[in-house]
Amino acid sequence: MSGHDSPVRFKDVGSVLKHFKGEHAENPVRFRCTLCVKEFKQKCSLDKHIAVHTTEKCYKCSTCGRSFALRGNLRTHQRIHQDKEEREIFNCQLCPWTCLTQSGVQRHVKTRHGNEKKTASYQCTLCDKALTRSTGVTLHMQANHPTNEMPIHSCEKCGYKSRMKFALTRHVQRVHDRVKRTECYFCGKKFFDFKDLVSHYPYFRKIRHVNLLGP
């Protein structure tokens, strides 16, 4: 059975990498999964995708017992167990729908609003931003042009202020609590920003490439 015709599953990630080394070392396409038909714009996305081809789920939620193949997926899942006041909420710019992750909002927009007419006929009165729905303009103005009636959330440790509570929460986590929210799937190193993780991957891929090829 060809890996291009249907997905191939392995016991663990190590077995997947061994398969790549033995069967696909000369594959000229850098970001296509050779175990299925999926393609990716970034190598780090392909690296994360590999985990779907394994039955191993070694990251378990201590609250509800649900298991995940990726540590990042576990961390995202654990947000549902947080108090509502502590959750970082992401908003759809086209409707009132909210989600705990930005990627979730992107999936929502693609599936819920993907077939809608893309004419941006609703204009923000305070800037040149145009949106496809009036509710989108309302949400845009709340986020970018808040009125004086909206409460200002102040940081107790410095002079930072924001009209959005989630922005203050993110500020405290990054600046004062030094919370590292993104993690390298292969080595476990943590980073404050996703862009730092992306910068880390070329260096780590070079080391992993040498280890896979051997002496």
From TrEMBL:
GO terms for cellular component: nucleus. Keywords: Metal-binding, Nucleus, Repeat, Transcription, Transcription regulation, Zinc, Zinc-finger. One of its GO terms (molecular function) is zinc ion binding. SMART domains: ZnF_C2H2 (SM00355). Its main location: nucleus. PROSITE patterns: ZINC_FINGER_C2H2_1 (PS00028), ZINC_FINGER_C2H2_2 (PS50157). InterPro entries: ZnF_C2H2-type_TF, Znf_C2H2_sf, Znf_C2H2_type. Residues 31-58, 59-86, 90-118, 122-150, 153-181 form the C2H2-type domain. The keyword Oxidoreductase does not apply. It is found in: Nucleus. PANTHER family: TRANSCRIPTIONAL REPRESSOR CTCFL-RELATED (PTHR24406). Belongs to the krueppel C2H2-type zinc-finger protein family. This is Zinc finger protein 2. It comes from Folsomia candida.
